[in-house]
Design goal:
By secondary structure, this protein is mainly α. It has a domain of 176 residues. The protein is built from twelve helices and no strands. α5 packs antiparallel against α7, α7 runs antiparallel to α8 and α9 runs antiparallel to α10. The radius of gyration is 19 Å and the shape is globular. This is ABC transporter. It comes from Dactylosporangium sucinum. Keywords: Membrane, Transmembrane, Transmembrane helix.
Length: 252
């Protein structure tokens, strides 16, 4: 058996045999569906039949649903460091980049699987709260927003994993990831210069990444849907690369 396959099987075993990941993924699904339904129901303009971005409203629960995903990804790495089990892992599989790559692959796949079910549940729930009915996956922009939401959550998991590998400490890593996600939008609202405001929206991982959910008024967006997801992918790749280099050259 190749080192890569052995690493993937080992990480999958860890993920499915511990109760924490299942609970965090369940919280992600519950929060995302519930918040999306609540936001859709509270949209007074939607109740009046106005032309709102229904898909974005329904999928807006990801704004909070991504937090448990970040925590799960951080604990997948920092939990092993805090218990020194990382030494056992690296003794069994000395190829450190392969270990982190396996963690990223298994975690992203698990998050994506749950995200697919969550998005479908969110769309089904929308039928009871939106006067126009639930958005249809047969509509190209809705399908893109739905698939993009799944990819967004998977990339958040990879980003968080990379940060955790670099920082090690659970609290510091969770604080770093949540700050990276939620702080830039707050700072952006305080910026009065329109050019800087637009630049921050285009560069921040959450603001840019969630542009993939938009299905209406695309020319008015600071960044296009796929380009925004590309910005998040760049953040995730940079975090994973940094974490890989530090894991490889730093003592455990």
């Amino acid at each position: 058996m190749s080192t890569a396959l052995h690493a993937v099987r080992a990480e999958w075993t860890k993920l499915r045999t511990t109760p924490g990941p299942a609970w965090l993924l369940l919280i992600t699904a519950t929060v995302t569906v519930a918040l999306g339904a609540a936001v859709s129901a509270a949209a007074t303009c939607a109740r009046a039949g106005c032309d709102l971005d229904a898909a974005r409203l329904v999928l807006s629960g990801v704004y909070l649903g991504q937090a448990p995903v970040a925590v799960l990804a951080v604990l997948a790495v920092s939990g092993e460091h805090s218990t020194t089990l990382i030494r056992t892992t690296l003794t069994a599989i000395p190829n450190r980049p392969a270990v982190l790559a396996a963690k990223a692959l298994v975690l992203a796949a698990a998050v994506a699987a749950v995200a697919c079910l969550t998005v479908l549940a969110s769309l089904l729930a929308a039928g009871s709260v939106l006067p126009t009915g639930r958005p249809s996956l047969a509509d190209g922009p809705v399908l893109r927003a739905s698939a993009g939401t799944v990819a967004y959550l998977a990339l958040i998991a990879v980003l968080s994993l990379g940060v955790a590998a670099a920082v090690r400490d659970s609290a510091a890593a969770i604080g770093t990831v949540l700050g990276l996600l939620y702080l830039p939008p707050v700072v952006t609202q305080m910026v009065s210069d329109p050019d800087l405001h637009r630049l921050l929206e285009r560069a921040a991982p959450m603001s840019a990444g969630l542009a993939v959910q938009a299905t209406t008024d695309l020319p008015q967006l600071p960044i296009g849907p796929w380009a925004g997801l590309g910005v998040l992918a760049a953040w995730s790749a940079a975090a994973l690369l940094t974490g890989t280099l530090l894991l490889r050259y730093r003592d455990t």
